[in-house]
Specification:
mainly beta
C-alpha cells in the first residue's frame, strides 16, 4: 500500500489547484475573512479543485 503525506496549501480563491495524493486544502478569502477547509484522497488520480466562497456582509 502506498502512503501519501498530508500537505496543507493556502491558495487564492481564483486559483485552480491540481495535486496528486492525500492532501488537505485550506482556502482563505482574506478580504471577507472567510475560510474553508476540505480534505480528500486521490491515490491514483489528479484532482482539480476550484472552490468559491461567498461572504455575507454584516448588517449595520
Amino acid at each position: 500500500m502506498t502512503q501519501y503525506s498530508k500537505r496543507e496549501v493556502t491558495i487564492d480563491l481564483t486559483t485552480q489547484l491540481s495535486i496528486d495524493g492525500n492532501i488537505k486544502v485550506k482556502i482563505v478569502n482574506t478580504q471577507n475573512n472567510n475560510s474553508a477547509k476540505l480534505a480528500f484522497t486521490a491515490p491514483h488520480s489528479v484532482l482539480i479543485l476550484r472552490k468559491e466562497i461567498v461572504g455575507k456582509t454584516p448588517k449595520k
